[in-house]
# Entry
Amino acid sequence: MSFEDNKPQSEDPQVEAALRQFRESIHQWSDEEFSRNRTLSRTAPSSFGSIWQRSFHSLTRPAIASALAGILIVGGAAVPILVHHERQLAIASEARALEQARERERIATERQQIQNVSQAADAVSDENLLSHVDSDIAQATPDAMEPLARMMNDPNPR
# Structure
């Protein structure tokens, strides 16, 4: 079963003729390309040996070699310094976090102490208020009416 067996039948003979000619020209071009002889040149710039040869040749130049050596020296010294610096920053960050946690804990204990003191003060003031109310209720006559009550209870009227 080929492609030609599964293709839908077109009713336009001109389209079918154009497609047939296109397919034949593609097949002919493909056959010509596959049958053509090819040669590889040894001086191709993309060959493996030439890239390494050019790289080695550029390293033999004093300016390039000294620049690369300088980059290696600076990189070799900079990497350990940066790693040490990052470790010091991490240690400082941990110390700051620990100090902040201690500060938060201190503030929380101070707030708790203040709250305990205020509750105790409220309890004392509540007891004083209740004793004052009890004494006011226990009086037979109010303070404002006390002179009148004494006068009524006094056996010697004036």
About this structure: The first helix runs from residue 3 to 6. The mean pLDDT is 81. The helical segments are 3-6, 13-35, 48-59, 62-138, 146-153.
